[in-house]
Amino acid sequence: MFRFSQGYQKEIMGKIPENILNEIQDKCDIVEVISSYVPLKQAGRNFRANCPFHHEKTPSFMVSPDKQIYHCFGCNSGGNVFNFIKEYEKIDFIEAVKMLAEKTGVKLPEYKRDKGEDSSIVSDTYTVNDVAGKYYAGLLEKAAAGSEVRRYVEKRGLDSQTLRKFRVGYADSSWRGLTDYLSSRGIKDDVAMRAGLSLKGKEGSCYDLFRNRVVFPICDVRDRIIGFGARVLDDSLPKYINSPETAVYKKGLHLYGLNFAKAAIKDKNFAIITEGYLDVITSHKYGVGNVIASLGTALTTEQIRLLKRYAHNVVILYDADQAGELASLRGLDLFLEEGMNVRIVTLAEGHDPDSFIRKFGTESFIASVRKAESLFSYKLNILKRKFNSAEPESKAEIAKEMLSTISRVKSAIVKAEYIKLLSQELSVKEESVWEELKKTKRPPGDKGSSRWGGRDSGQGGKDIGRIEIPAAERMLARLMLEDAKVIDAVRNELKPLDFRNSSVRHIVEALFSIDTSDTLIDITRLINYLEDKVSANVVSFIVNEEMEIKDKEKNVADCITVIKKENRNARLKDIQNRLAVVQKEGYIEEEKRLLDEFNQLIKRGF
């Protein structure tokens, strides 16, 4: 059985028992888990895809069902199923374990999380948000009939069931209503301030951020309140005040209503994106459950990737005020870069989704959604209305705008069709349009690098995520990971400190502590044990690197020899450097000692 010695196990085991982690991993197939986020294609015994962690055109992301690990040869992201969930969901190890435990039906034991400063702030922020959400909801429930807030929610057609579902609340006009309530619950002012619920006045006292407003809790996909949006009850400005970014709330990473809509989005295979809280709430009330909102910002790559977990098709719902805004349309090109299908629909003049569905009903709303146009058609029609397409200069402007979008289309077939359609619409030769496309500046994802720190392995770009490990150490670690019998051979010749690369040294320390009666090393469990000592991508890189090994015993012996020789040479160089210093300073005794050590190393060899 694959296991570590007790001493090492105590040192490296996390907060969740080994047997629980093993049970979860035994019940999880990494191919099944990752394919629920990323479309995988079989390639021999493995599966490949475009990496979800950096932009690339040539797939370099590999998933091994045999080893139950993944690795990207572009950005060098890698690890086991826990690591994938951590990186994709942007959560910590414990949260990833909890997610997969829920998925597999494994019951987790009670445990106490280490209260480091960062984890304490996150935990406190979730707690105070939950308390604040209940406080605001309670104020709305207690609001008297005929009061300003009651008139507002009735005007919007929001019944008590809908208000409870979305946890809508009310912040009254008191300057310290919430602040005093939190204080009575033992929550300090600085906690409320870090959560963005209160502000500090000139005299140092705190006061509530939200006052005399309807409050809409913003939740993450796990239904935890991460922030709030608050709307005035009249037409005064600013109409909305939103929570500032906090330890748990980064508005560019979340989508309003996704916690309620994700099941319907999966079922219908598309999402409807609106702008406002009430657009979402009213749509859900009227039975259209796949509606979400962008939290009033331009959509980000992170939001699109979050949505992509549930569907690859999107309908953007514009009201009449937004229709025809090329700037907002340019932002939708991000969907194409992420390989998603995007369509656009404009509602009747004067209506947003909230007012439209309340006036015309669910069937009319759905009928409007069905009339959605592709981004290509929608954008082209706007440009043709804006420019006189009979003039050569106008044709060039239209082509420039359209090619900026077309260049981001992933499918070569779809791209070719769009080029053909554009040439027909502009009455120009198709070859000319292709020529202009070549001049179009490629989107960031095609340049070979991205904000994720990777490279496009098929484009020869700079390998920002390169892992530098001496060749002999890398091969020897690989051989030990493949066969526990090799561990004994290495242990007899080398010590962990003989490995210069710190990550490999930690791997060797772990392997030297393994009971080698079993010749099979479970890489996925090793990765768990090495948490916080060695990045999972280092292990996955070593295991998945392509190398031809014909004679295992000879390779082991050669690697040991090389490591010993390199260490001896490094030691000799160090002595020479120290000799130069002591000779200059005139330390005769130290010079003699170093010369003796140097000569002994030369005689002993390696």
The strand order across the widest sheet is: 1-2-3-4-5
Integer average pLDDT: 84
Sheet with the most strands, sense and barrel status: 5 strands, antiparallel
Q: Could you tell me the strand content as a percent range?
A: 5-15%
Shape from CA axes?
globular
Tally the beta strands: 16
Category by helix and strand content: alpha+beta
N- to C-terminal distance? 36 Å
Residue share in helix: 40-55%
- Put simply, the count of helices is 28
The radius of gyration over CA amounts to 30 Å
Unreliable runs: 5-14, 112-116, 443-464
List keywords for this structure.
single chain, 606 residues, alpha+beta, five-stranded antiparallel β-sheet, five-stranded mixed β-sheet, 16 strands
Q: What can you tell me about this protein's structure?
A:
The structure is a single chain. With 606 residues, the chain is α+β, with helices and mostly antiparallel strands. Helices cover 50% and strands 11% of the residues. The strands form four sheets. The chain has a five-stranded antiparallel sheet, sandwiched between helices. Helix 4 (81-89) crosses helix 5, helix 19 (392-406) packs antiparallel against helix 20 (412-426) and helix 22 crosses helix 23. The longest helix has 34 residues, at 552-585. It is globular. The two termini are 36 Å apart.
